[in-house]
Amino acid sequence: MELSNLTLLSGETFDENVLGAVALPQGGNATFQSALLHDFDMVVLMLHEEQETERIITHTIAGDRRTQSVHVGLSALERAVMAGDNNELLTSLMSGEVIWDPQGILAEMRKQIIQFQGPLKERVLFMEFSRFLHMYVKSKRYLEAGCTMDAYNCVLIALYHWARIEVSEAGVFPEPAVWGQVKSLNSSVHKLYEELTVSTETLEQRIELILLACEFALMSKMTDCCAMLLNILSSRKESWSIKELLQHSGLSQLQAELPFVLRKLVSRSLIREITSWAVEAGGGHGIRYTL
Question: How far apart (Å, rounded) are the C-alpha atoms in residues 243 and 252?
Fold first, then answer.
């Protein structure tokens, strides 16, 4: 479909200097139907070089066809692919029809996701491991405080990130509907999910069992899943402050999770912490990290 034809179909005027466009119609072949399609006949993902607002949404109507257009900058879409935290954009990118891609940017992004190797796989593994660890710690703290339902919610999310790790380790990009992928792998995490949700034991007993399994998985997967962070730490001779690490392009999406990972890596002697006098530490000693 040409961009000019899409303009007639959707009722919206598109700038032909746009980097790329993907059209996702209602009732397409995607296993997971994007929520962006709710009450719309079509979603159009429009890729721009950069824009002040991360996402701009417009609604148009042509005849009886209603279209929701999502305008995103290239960096925002790349972030969604790397971080895996925007299922709607990923579904549109992978399941829609590429109708404008003069520079081949969208085709290349799709190719990297399908092949799922190298830096993309490393980053997804680290992102998911970081979130897995974060939710495990939160669940454990809630359980200790007697907040059983909050602990249940957190450990359920922890299992979700563990499931995404399992799929990634199998060499496949984790889809939004990840539990179907995990079940086909006959992975232990799917059995744990069933144990958590349908077991006849008390809720507290189920959470405690899953937390034990999570702790073992975290320890066994730590080195491989944290390869990206270990590579960053080894990329220079000088040690790194937490501030410097959070400013690194590969880690900037992990404001909440990175401190947990650093402390866990230190406790397992996979990285070292170095203390030095630091004015920003209130006259105390700042902590820096290195291999």
Answer: 10
What's the rounded Cα separation, in Å, for the pair 16 and 7?
11
56 burial (CB, 10 Å; 0-12 / 13-18 / 19+) is middle
The predicted model scores a pTM of: 0.86
**Parts of the chain with a pLDDT under 70:** 1-17, 27-37, 51-52, 84-86, 277-284
Residues with Cβ within 8 Å of residue 102, at least 6 apart in sequence:
19, 20
Which residue, 18, 25, 17, is CA-closest to 68?
Answer: 25
Q: How far apart are CA 277 and CA 25, in angstroms?
A: 59
What per-residue confidence (pLDDT) applies to 5? 54
Helices (H), the chain: 3-10, 74-83, 87-95, 105-115, 118-144, 148-169, 178-184, 188-198, 203-225, 227-233, 242-247, 258-267
C-beta separation of 285 from 291 below 8 A = no
Q: Take residue 137 and report the two structure tokens written for it.
A: 């710690």
